[in-house]
Prior knowledge:
By secondary structure, this protein is mostly beta strands.
Amino acid sequence: MAIYLTVFQTGVAPGGRAPFPDSTALVGAPRANSSVLMDALYQPGVLFKCEIKNQECQEVVLDKKGNTQTDNRNSDFSFYDKKDGMWLGVSLDVLQNPARNDQNPARNEIVTCGHLWKNQFYKQHYLANGACYVINGDLDPNHVTKLVPFVEKSKQAIIPPGIYKYAFGQVGTSATFSEDGKYLLLGAPGYYDWTGTVVSYALDPSYPLDRQLKNNNVRPAVPSPPTDHNVSPESYIGYSVTSGKFYDDKLDYVAVGAPRDGGFHGRVYIYEAVQGGEKKLIVTQKKEGTQLGEYFGASVLGVNLNGDEYTDLLVGAPLYSSDSGVDEGKVYVFLSNGMGLQEFTELYGKNRFNSRFGTALANLGDLNQDDFNDIAIGAPYEDGSGVVYIYHGSRSGMNVQYVQRIAAVEINSGLSGFGIHISRGFDIDSNQYPDVLVGAYASSNAVLFRTHPVIQLAAKITFSPKQINTNVTNCNYQGQDVPCVNVTACLWYAGKHSPSNLDFQHTIVLEPTNQHNLIQPRGFFLHKGKSLTVIQQKSKLDIGMDFCIMDVLYIRPEIKDVITPIQLLYSYSLVAPDSSLNQFNGTAPVIDPMSPSNITSSVTFQTGCGTDDKCLSDLRVTAVFLGHTDTSYLIIGEKNTLSIAIEIVNVGEPAYLSELLIYLPSELPSINQDICSEYNDQQFQRRNASLICDLGNPLLKNIKVKIQIKLDLTKIPTDKKELEIGLEAITASNEINPKDNIVKIPLHFKALADISITGTPTHEQIPYDGKTEGRISLPIAHTYFVMNHGPSPVQVIDILLYIPTQYQGQDGTVEFITFTSLEADSGKPMTIPAKCNDTYIQFKPIEVDIKKNRDGISMDDELVARGENKTFFGLDYGIDSSELSDDTTVPLRFKRSNDKKTSRKRKDIVINCETAKCMAIQCSASPFSDTRKFAKITVSVLVNLSILNDVLEPWYQIEFITGGEVQIRDDGSGVVARHHHPDKTMVRTAIVSSALRESEEIAQWIIFVSIGVGILLLLIILILLIKFGFFKREQKEKMEKMKSKGDMKEYEPVEGESTESEALN
């Protein structure tokens, strides 16, 4: 039996809180049999109401009838329901309306669903439409409304082509009320052949919900899937659903999971809630998983993690597998900055095999009262029985390390499936801390976890005098004067809604390292004549007040090591009250895991200088940046690190307890610390220094200490113009020249960024048969890429795209463009979220059944001329072949086009913003902090050639040109633009006609001039030949004789033989 649950309280008076006995848990048991309907139904599922005080559960009556038929079977909304096996309780949520006044008291509304509720459409045809029940907070069976939004007979299927629309919608697979209480959202992953959707009911929070629904004042909105985002078949949109103020602190958006979308990578779509009708779901942003089959989007949770004004998003991927594992699961965390959701981190729990970490997500509220929401993540199969992890929110987003791991085996060995569902946090015992219920479906249990108050601790140890002077023996031990130091160890606690006083156990251990190594400590405490190295004491502390233990630390006289400080370990813990051993005590606190349970402090030795026992030291500090001069500017983002070399020298007497204090701005943290340390304890926080460097005790004369600190430059905001680093050398000795102990080094910054926009068409050329008539539309898609090449990050880049849409013809301006889609966010990991103002654009998405020819020409019933079953060139344009003849039956528009083609010459035509009217689309993208990432915007249009052919002269080629430009938004960030890359671009697509180019007529004077020039050249050649005697016989014979001699020279004599000329000689 599966367990699904939530927590709420009944009987809340205006302005007051319900006492613990009124706390009630709701538990869904989808495979349970009803005790009300008995044998009338088989395993319909049951919603149980469980009293926390006595742990007794009883069935909530939602439906008193078995399988029934509506009165009017002829109505399009009539049905014959089958409730057997409907899985009632598979989803469950509670809307908690706070009290407004005495006339409008606090009110709860509950919704629970059975996604397998079936409508008997025909005798043997059962359609899993799904059903939900809404009941008021009093659980009054007379105030129940049954919601069956998918029973409309005419919409069960679309035949042809054989698409199941409502038939197997399975509405109620997920269910939630929106964060502002204005919508009831029901996931229906089976809608439209399991593509899925989210059914939404617009609500009035000031009016009881059951009355709104019963009176049919609210009609469900069933948005169609976002086909312009390449939604995959069987995406399961609606498998999970949540809501939140992701982009606007006054407007709720819906986040819906589609774990099989995106080629089985899984997707989450974020969109503004639809109020009515079947409008297309308009996606504001989408996120996509990174691994095939990880089921990204199986669970979603909107929760404000960092305390800003926007809701953040968690997405579960429970089937994620590591390279060497299987189904470990993980959770993606996306933080919102108002412009979009950016991935912050990924959570893995303990990354155990088959855990399915991320199956359940829950907002627990503020568990530790630090003003940030905390979350729970379920891994129902970890360790075989299930585990729940607790994570804390924080100002930076959230702590990536879990603070608590609750394993089922540590609670009860019989639990199984623990963590399949987790309730939101709710305080049931009035201790001001939220409690939580966890379902364990395989063992049919729900486990309640109650939260203790949380306290924070602070401790310190002080010594008087601050150093041990071995020459001062002001204490006596066994008749011998010995040095001694007064030790004071103090503890303080605070916590919201915590007891005013608590009992603590204190323990002080002297030199714990020496005791561990069996080395005798150099000091001891004296109690009742006995020397002790460990002090233990119990005490009662008042909240906000210091409690201190004071004792004397005796120094053994025979010690030789007077250089190494003596260390003390102070540990402390709560003393548990006796009552907490047997039962839960809601007022008994626990210590915040972030508070240390112990501190360590040391006392050093002092050695006198000179006869006056005063050390007159003279510390000097110098520092330089490595690879950078103090006067030049640092370009933000150009370097990630900067090193500073520091040198300290003492030119005076020994400097005891010499330290260097380094003051770093919060925007300029250190990466390494060299010999320095960070101290969180206020006692060691010397004047709020970032780093404290121990220079030696003592630092002797003329000894140099060199320190090199590497600084992190990646945290500097772009509006920062100057930062200052401070260095200060201090000592317990008397400094004779303190002016040269302090050095201040300024750093000057500039923010420079080189942004660019480039574009590319889907097709550079589109062939077109110029002989074709009819309303022909060509799809053209231009994609623009916007990048920041750095070096500095840019928060927001404004983008302006120009699309030619209207052409000025003889009869006026005509619009030849139809927008099909504007995709500004692909959801890929390397893309930056972008938003476009498309409210004034009317989109006409290309439907799935549009026909395309081999040239990519698109046509449907609204894009081609009217007609029936008329084809030519293998295409169905809906035009009668007789309409293409030259007789009088040709329509006027076609004849005019033919006349122009036969009587006028064809041209190459350019359509851009100079030759046509353009529409400017304003977009923006943010943030550009990674130079590898880019914003991608794709504009898809249909160019109506039939309109252009009417207004253009005959053409060979139409060059369709769009343009784009970018600029850095002037938001005070101080980023100055560079111009090494183009900030403007154009994208071209050529529509090329297949008609042959007509030969151009040549002017007669050109022909006559060409003939005359040819005759003149021929006469010149004849004169030259005559002048050189080419036609004389004597010259011809000489030339032949010379030729014959040349032929004889071609023969070479062979070795051992002689030529004819040699024999004659």
